[in-house]
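Handout, section B. The chain below has 256 residues.
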Amino acid sequence: MNQIERLDYLIDYLLDESEIITYIPKTLTDKKLLLRSLMNIREPKPISKEFLFIQDAYLQEELTSKKVTDLSQLSQLQDHIYLYQGDITLLKVDAIVNAANNQMLGCFVPNHRCIDNAIHTYAGIQLRLECYNIMKVQETLEPTGKAKITKGYNLPAKYVIHTVGPITQGKLTNLDCELLRSCYQSCLKLADAYQLKSIAFCCISTGEFRFPQYEAASIAIDTVKQYMNQTHTEMEVIFNVFKDEDKRIYEQILRT
C-alpha cells in the first residue's frame, strides 16, 4: 500500500465510522486536510488494529518528508538551555510540552492552528485514547498548573507532557503568574520522575489563553533556572517559539 492508498483508506474508514457524508476532494493537499479534520473530531473510542497500523505507516512516511530537528543540532544560549524556532511536532527530544485544555483530550476544532491540535494530529489518534483513559480514572477536569505524561506515538518526541495553563482575563494577576509558574514546575518534576534527559516547552498560555508574551517568557525562564539551581538537574531544556516576536523576547531575556 503506497501513501496515497493509505490516505484514501484512512479517510474512508473515518467517514464510514462516523457516518458523515461529505465531498471527497481530488487534490492531495485537500485530502490531507480532510483526514486531519476527521481525526480532530473523532471521539475517543475503540478502533481496529488495521486502522492503527495503516495510520502509523502513513504518519511515519509523512514525517520522513519533513525536517526533523534533533537536540544535537541546537546551540546552547545558557548552560542546558536552548532556543528553537519552529514546529514543536518536529523536535526529536525526550518530551515536548503540550498546552492542553482542562478536558485533556486535544482540540476538536477541525484543522485548528493551536499546538494542541497539531500534537494530537501528528501523534495519531492513540494519543486522544490514552488521554481519555487517564481522565476516566481521574474523574475530574485537569487542574490548571498540573501536568500529565503520555507516549509520543508517531511524533519524533518519545513523550508528550500535557499541562493546562491559566486563561487570563484582562489585567494580569498574581494568581495567573503563580499558576503559569506551576505549569513549568509540574512539567519539570514529571520529566525528572521519568528520568528524561530533554524537554521542549511551548509558550504556555500565550496563544488562545492570552497571557502576555514578555511576562510569560520571563516566568518560564526564571522557573526553569530556579528548578535547575535547586535540583542540580542536568536535563536539557528547550524553549520552543513559533513567532518572530517570541524569539526576540526569549533572546532578549536569555542574553541578559
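Note. Residues 105 and 131 are 6 Å apart (CA to CA). Compare this with the example in section A.
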